[in-house]
């Protein structure tokens, strides 16, 4: 049998020095082009990470991705996350209804040892009928907190379960007397963009008057609405959208733009966000539908997440509600049960729900108290520059006796 001869594959000739130099130049050019393309991306991302505020890196990263064409990806990931991390069913809150800190205090009138006469104020709110079938002690009962005027509390809070299923989760509600308090819409460094950091926090001069703060709405591109402040329209106001309106005298209203509320010379600020949740004292129809055109990128109306909302009562008080494991329907039910005749959703998700009331005397830094301890960001969130716009409630000038 003939012996097979092994044949060696032909050896490739090494590239010539000229070809090696050409290849290195090509690789360097490609690398330089990639670097040049990445510089604006890296700069933009680094700006997002180092912007003023308490927001964690994870939240800043998600917002940056959304603002740079990745909104659909973020929404898909969030849906998956919340489908895998559903809130617990049954049980009771650890420790029951919180015993809140920051009882109201009031100073006597200057130069006297007596309390001044009570100023004009709204009637105290009626206790909220619990939504859960088996109420806990103190559930739905209002508790005066924070600063007061001549012994009259400007802010009260209560806690209740939002449904009969997720009975270990509490929703906090804050009631604010708009005869004792005046409102301000404070812009953030990013929403709307371009705000100087010094204007995106509570001014030190206003510390003695500060009674409460709470978060505003979605990013403007997700809100399906507009933003107006001090004569400047950052984003056009949209007819029919839910609107939080602040007037130049500090009074407020919540309603549908163009019917319940509209532009007048007395309007100082308008913040729109989606559609009304509550109208005529009742949750609006269609809350169970998953309509992005109507409700924005809310992860689906029935997805249970941290949600916040605000409404106005028949006598003009503000009620703010926030809590984990809320759907659009359960948030609306809480706001209506707390007395709101019209109400709107504000921001959602763990990172953005923030509400505080304040105590303290004099011009020093006030002491903030979170409405719910589970709120993610620090209680000093709005005492330093923040990325998002927010609302502040101050004691009206002339109400010198403060607690």
What is the compact description of this entry?
The protein is of the alpha+beta class.
Walkthrough of the structure:
With 403 residues, the chain is of the alpha+beta class. The chain has one domain (84-395). 20% of the residues lie in helices and 26% in strands. The chain is built from 5 helices and 18 strands. The strands form 3 sheets. Strands 1-2-3-14-13-15-11-12 form an 8-stranded antiparallel sheet, with helices on one face. Strands 4-18-5-16-17 form a 5-stranded antiparallel sheet, with no helix packed on it. Strand 1 and strand 2 (152-160) form a beta hairpin. Helix 1 packs across helix 2 (57-84). The longest helix is centred in the first third of the chain and has 34 residues, at 17-50. It is globular, with a radius of gyration of 27 Å.
Number of strands: 18
Note the total helix count: 5
**What radius of gyration results from the CA coordinates?**
27 Å
**Can you give the mean pLDDT?**
84
Features:
disordered C terminus, alpha+beta, five-stranded antiparallel sheet, 403 residues, 18 strands, 20% helix, globular, single chain, eight-stranded antiparallel sheet
Set down the secondary structure blueprint.
Layout: H1 17-50, H2 57-84, E1 143-149, E2 152-160, E3 171-176, E4 181-186, E5 210-215, H3 220-223, E6 227-229, E7 232-235, E8 242-247, E9 252-256, E10 267-272, E11 276-279, E12 282-283, H4 292-295, E13 305-313, E14 318-326, H5 328-337, E15 340-348, E16 355-359, E17 367-370, E18 390-395
Antiparallel strand pairs: 1-2, 2-3, 3-14, 4-18, 5-16, 5-18, 6-7, 6-10, 8-9, 8-10, 11-12, 11-15, 13-14, 13-15, 16-17
Helix pairs in contact: 1-2
């Amino acid at each position: 049998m003939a012996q097979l001869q092994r044949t060696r594959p032909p050896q490739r000739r090494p590239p010539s020095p000229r070809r090696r130099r050409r290849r290195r130049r090509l690789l360097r050019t490609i690398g330089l082009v990639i670097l040049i393309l990445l510089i604006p991306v890296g700069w933009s991302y680094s700006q997002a990470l180092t912007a003023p505020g308490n927001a964690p890196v994870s939240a800043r990263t998600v917002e940056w991705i959304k603002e740079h064409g990745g909104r659909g990806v973020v929404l898909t990931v969030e849906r998956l996350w919340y489908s895998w991390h559903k809130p617990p069913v049954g049980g009771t809150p650890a420790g029951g209804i919180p015993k809140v800190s920051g009882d109201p205090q009031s100073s006597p009138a200057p130069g006297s040892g007596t309390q001044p006469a009570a100023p004009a104020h709204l009637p105290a709110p009626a206790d909220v009928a619990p939504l859960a079938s088996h109420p806990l002690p103190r559930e739905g009962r209002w508790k005066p907190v924070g600063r007061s005027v001549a012994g009259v509390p400007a802010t009260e809070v209560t806690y209740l379960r939002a449904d009969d299923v997720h009975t270990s989760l509490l929703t906090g509600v804050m009631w604010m007397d708009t005869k004792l308090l005046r409102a301000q819409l404070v812009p953030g460094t990013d929403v709307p963009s371009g705000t100087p950091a010094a204007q995106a926090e509570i001014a030190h001069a206003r510390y003695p008057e500060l009674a409460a703060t709470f978060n505003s709405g979605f990013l403007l591109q997700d809100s399906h609405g507009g933003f107006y402040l001090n004569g400047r329209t950052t984003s056009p106001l949209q007819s029919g959208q839910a609107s939080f309106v602040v007037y130049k005298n500090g009074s407020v209203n919540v309603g549908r733009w163009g019917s319940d509320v509209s532009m007048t010379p007395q309007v100082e600020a308008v913040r729109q966000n989606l559609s009304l949740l509550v109208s005529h004292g009742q949750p609006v129809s269609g809350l169970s539908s998953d309509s992005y055109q109507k409700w924005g990128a809310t992860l689906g109306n029935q997805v249970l997440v941290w949600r916040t909302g605000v409404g106005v009562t028949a006598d003009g008080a503000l009620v703010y509600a926030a809590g984990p494991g809320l759907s659009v329907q359960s948030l609306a039910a809480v706001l209506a049960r707390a007395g709101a005749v019209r109400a709107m959703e504000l921001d959602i998700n763990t990172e953005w729900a923030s509400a505080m009331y304040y105590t303290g005397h004099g011009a020093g830094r006030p002491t903030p108290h979170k409405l719910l301890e589970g709120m993610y960001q620090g209680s000093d969130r709005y005492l330093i520059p923040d990325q998002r716009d927010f609302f502040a409630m101050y004691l009206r000038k002339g109400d010198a006796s403060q607690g």
